[in-house]
From TrEMBL:
Top-level taxonomic group: Bacteria
E.C. no: 7.6.2.9
Domain ABC transporter: 2-237
Species per Swiss-Prot/TrEMBL record: Mycetocola zhadangensis
Stretches of the chain forming a coiled coil according to its record: none
Keyword annotations of the record: ATP-binding, Nucleotide-binding, Transport
Protein name as it appears in the record: ABC-type quaternary amine transporter
GO MF annotation terms: ABC-type quaternary ammonium compound transporting activity; ATP binding; ATP hydrolysis activity
Pfam families per record: ABC_tran
Amino acid sequence: MITFDGVSKRFPDGTLAVDNFSITIPSRTTTVFVGSSGSGKTTLLRMINRMVDPTGGAIRIDDEDVSTLEPVALRRRVGYVMQNSGLLPHRTVVDNVATVPLLTGVPKREAREAALQLMDTVGLDRALAERYPSQLSGGQQQRVGVARGLANDPNILLMDEPFGAVDPLVRSELQQELLRIQKELAKTIVFVTHDIDEAFLLGDQVVILSTGGRIAQVGTPEEILAHPADEFVDNFIGAERGRRALSIKNVHGKDVVVDGTGRLAGILRVPSGESSRTV
């Protein structure tokens, strides 16, 4: 469990990035921080592993104040996945994945074997193990980044807009892979995005942030969709434009789902054994 208790962050130039932020992140669930630029979401994420230190309040992991922990040791026990993967270009895929275990003293052969198993976990062909990052596609690089973040078997995985730099099709595939991995491994994931659809897809708990790291609303995707807290949240999730108001339209004998603007949102599939009248 991760607890933010009255956390603030003011940078030396006077910018208030986070203002009196308090929330509890339950263990073995995915919490998504979502907001536009300047909402403090990445700053909040980086305070968990002390890449950034707060100027006020406290952050605790399982009741242990992170400010009392040595930063490097803390970062080695918390997985971190960033945008553009952040891979070491001069190391092969398998050695990139094995980076943290090697730093913590795991024998090279053992670390590399565990890295190969993690490649299986994230859906990477072992034939790619000896390739370098420049020889991989963007989606493959991000999978390597996720594998590296999991390499030390951390309880906590921090993900800073990890799928923001890939095309929509690959992004969708990576989102589904993350859902599968979380179902299998049950980590405590803190995920940062500016995309509300991604937040609703991935998050057990979604935290919508306004400027200065202030909480506009927190809840499950269903709670936020059903009861937006205010006009800001309404605008942010697209409810005021009718984008979330879905309806069914028959096109050439097939039921499709359209949003409030008339744009296609999906295909309606009737579960086996049910009639379309029950949907």
